[in-house]
Each structure stands twice: as C-alpha cells, then as structure tokens.
C-alpha cells in the first residue's frame, strides 16, 4: 500500500495553472491545493540521466506514494501534497493541485500515454475509509477530464492503485474491500470485479491491506497483488475470472507493480523481480534489489528498460529528501 500523501498548500501551482488556463476549461482546470507533482520535463531527464542511481530531490511533504515515468512529456510524476520539480538541490514543484480533492490524499497514479492523460486515485487518509475516487487530467494542460467517485454510501473502501487497458478503461483496486472498479475512458463507472478468490487467507493480519498494485498485461488481463496475503491474481476483465498465480517465493507485502516485459514483473517494497514463462499461470521470484535500507519502496516505474523505485518516506529536517532509485537486480 499506500501510506498517504499529506495535504498541504501548493506554492508552485500557478505555473501549472498558467499552462492550462489559456485552453478550453473543461470541467475545471486545476487550482491550488494538493495533489500531484510532475517533475519538470527537461530537468527530470537531466537528473535521471546524470545520476546512475536515480534521482533525489527535496520537498515539503513526508510521504510520496507513487512515481511514474512519462516518456512523451519526458517528465516523471509523483503525487504528493506539496510541491516538486528540480532546482539546484532538485526541489520539487507542484504542477497539479485539484481543489476538489483538497482534504484527500493522492495514492496510485498511471500515465495513459496514448490518450495523453494522467489518472490519479484519491482517498481519505487512513484510517478513514469513506472516500474513494479516480480522476483523469490532460498531461499538457493539467485540465481535469473527470473526477469519479467510486464508493457508495456506507461503503468502507480504500482506492489504492490504477491502471488503464488498451481501450482506455481504468481499473482501480480497493485495498479495503478487495475489489476492482472499472471506469470507462470518459469516467463512467462501468462495473465492479469482485470474487471470493481475492480473499485467500483468513485472519485480519492477512487482510489488513488487500488488493493493491495492478498492471495491465499486453495479452489482455490484469495482474493484481494482495499486499497482506502476498497473493498475485490474474484477472480477466472480460470474463471476470480470477486465478491465483502460483508463485515460487514470497510476495508478501507487495505494493505498486511494474511490468518490465510481458514475462517480468517488479514488486516493492521488498524489491522482488518475478518472472513467468507460461503467461502468468505460474511464476517465480528470481531477483532482488537491495535499495536504501532505511527507505520503503512503494511503487515502481520503467524508463528505457530500467526500473526506478519510488520510496514513500522522505527524510530530513525542514525540507525532506526523497529518493527515486534505479534498481539493479541481483539474482537469487
Ligand atoms: C470468480 O472466479 C472464478 C474463477 O475464475 C469464476 O469461476 C467465478 O465465476 C468468479 N466469480 C464471480 C462472482 O465472478
């Protein structure tokens, strides 16, 4: 999972607004408040390229849940409550701050490159489970395309991560209710994928955090990790069939996933490389990356064939230093 990203005001949002304000205001260009941070394009490229180990930058917030590489924009994006971009000491700058979700936290995000959009999941800070939503923003203007509430009245949910399929449908995991919401490219809630198979193991300790990281496989199915139980599921969104992938090795505490290739998956925070040679009927943990020991990996992203790991907690007095490190795998 998914800590939260803490809410704060965003100083640098004016720049992002300026970029969006000239165009058609769809349903509200984003204003000030909380949300997402994109690391300025050119600078982020320079930094990623310039340091073999990845990127480190400073900002105001403690918790940064997720970072994704945006190949077209050349920007790396991560959600948080306050501000990123890169300056001398690689300072963060807020480029997107949506006032409609100001008291929530941003969790998983995904770049939907074919449609030039960024999707972000929002929820309340734990331990409140009364709000789950997914929003989409235009990458060029940061205008919001939709903000869709996912939970119903009285539901106990925690929207956690999101991925899109080839047609632009979004799939959002519910780490509390163990289900997957499907949302159309226009933001309409379409269906909910629920299955008893998602709750493999009894006991609260095995269900503290449920469905979490999710990826869309090019063969047309979803791979989803259950954090506390450590189970990996293969889900066909068309038939809604759910299978447990038989994994050799442990995936306990698995968080945001990244698909390195159709047969290779990366799972933080224990930094495991998982491989399958039979289209994810079975798989094995084959490699491990040892990152900064005092930091916790929470999401992974792929840039030019390399995996970069976002670490959730920043350190420091005053400004917090955050690290997105390049993973070099050691075979097990
Ligand atoms: C759950 O998945 C199993 C196995 O794929 C399938 O047979 C069953 O119909 C599914 N249940 C629901 C409620 O969709």
CATH class of the domain at 104-331: Mainly Beta
Model regions low in confidence, pLDDT < 50 over at least 5 residues: 1-52, 74-88
> Which architecture of the domain at 104-331 per CATH?
6 Propeller
The overall average pLDDT, rounded, is 75
The outline comes out as globular
SSE string, helix = H, strand = E?
Answer: HEHEEEEEEEEEEEEEEEEEEEEEEEEE
Taken as a percent bin, the fraction of beta residues is 35-45%
Bound molecules: 2-acetamido-2-deoxy-beta-D-glucopyranose
| CATH homologous superfamily heading of the domain at 104-331 | TolB, C-terminal domain
Helix- and strand-based class? Answer: mainly beta
How large is the count of helical segments? 2
Main pleated sheet: 6 strands, mixed
Key traits:
transmembrane helix; four-stranded antiparallel sheet; 332 residues; 6-blade_b-propeller_TolB-like; globular; mainly beta; binds 2-acetamido-2-deoxy-beta-D-glucopyranose
